[in-house]
Amino acid sequence: MGARILVVEDESDLAELVAFNLRQAGHTVTTAGDGATALAEIQRQRPDLLVLDVMLPDITGVEICRRIRRQEATASIPVVMLTARGEEVDRVVGFEVGADDYVTKPFSPRELVLRIEAILRRVTSPTEEAAPQNITVGEMIIDVPGHRVEVDGEEIILTALEFRLLLDLAKRRGRVQSRDALLERVWGYSPGIETRTVDTHVKRLREKLGSASAYIETVRGVGYRMRSD
């Protein structure tokens, strides 16, 4: 069964192109050309996923994402952000307010559909592997059922995806994890999709973890590893 997807994009031709490809994949699609209409549609239909342009004529996509994350009824709606700008700061801001993925224009409609369907699989499928109640790595404590992280007794606020990434590395500490493996497990992407999503999330995660960031090591040309000591 297809998902209910809301596409928020002020370029009507692009909105229809995205909507067409999603409908071809079996999804039900509604479009909105501005932020105010989008917010009203989100409250009305509670879509299964939101495709959201960063630059809109009234309210920015970042602000819309921030608002829906603050409301319990809409906080868990997956968000894929679109933008014509590829600057790293835009990616970081988008992920910081809770976006699940970030796609820079121009993009392949097929790749966008694949990313969206990967996210939908991830949010509707149970976690494949049980984790212990708590994982301790040095001064960092990961409270698995509570989705909380503390470093030196201070709580670190992470987005849902940042927490999933940290937990995935922590469960496999001491072992190198390739970007493709992380994309497949954490994001649900098929290996081979070109994306800097992993690198962007790791960078932001390290910034938030402070002194504990040293436990996440970069293995050049391969991926990342969490130290076991």
Would you spell out the secondary-structure blueprint of this structure?
Elements: E1 4-8, H1 12-24, E2 28-32, H2 35-45, E3 49-53, H3 61-70, E4 79-83, H4 88-96, E5 101-104, H5 109-124, E6 134-137, E7 140-143, E8 148-151, E9 154-156, H6 160-171, E10 177-178, H7 179-187, H8 197-209, E11 216-219, E12 223-226
Parallel strand pairs: 1-2, 1-3, 3-4, 4-5
Antiparallel strand pairs: 6-7, 7-8, 8-9, 10-12, 11-12
Task: Explain briefly what this protein structure is.
The chain is of the alpha/beta class and 229 residues long. The chain has helices at residues 12-24, 35-45, 61-70, 88-96, 109-124, 160-171, 179-187, 197-209; strands at 4-8, 28-32, 49-53, 79-83, 101-104, 134-137, 140-143, 148-151, 154-156, 177-178, 216-219, 223-226.
Describe the 3D structure.
The structure is a single chain. This protein has eight helices and twelve strands. It is 41% helix and 21% strand. By secondary structure, it is α/β, with parallel strands linked by helices. It is globular, with a radius of gyration of 18 Å. It has two domains: 4-124, Response regulator (Rossmann fold, 3-Layer(aba) Sandwich), CATH 3.40.50.2300; 134-226, Winged helix-like DNA-binding domain superfamily/Winged helix DNA-binding domain (Arc Repressor Mutant, subunit A).
Task: List the defining traits of the structure above.
Rossmann fold, Arc Repressor Mutant, subunit A, five-stranded parallel sheet, four-stranded antiparallel sheet
Proportion in helices: 40-55%
Strand order of the largest sheet: 2-1-3-4-5
**Percent of residues in β-strands:** 15-25%
Write down the Rg.
18 Å
The CATH class label of the largest domain is Alpha Beta
How many DSSP helices?
8
**Domains, number:** 2
Helix/strand/pairing class, anyone? alpha/beta
CATH superfamily of the largest domain: Response regulator
Task: Note the overall shape.
Answer: globular
- The CATH topology label of the largest domain is Rossmann fold
Provide the residue-averaged pLDDT.
87
| Intertermini distance | 45 Å
CATH architecture of the largest domain: 3-Layer(aba) Sandwich
Order of helices and strands, N to C? EHEHEHEHEHEEEEHEHHEE
Largest sheet: 5 strands, parallel
Catalogue the unreliable spans.
none
β-strand number: 12
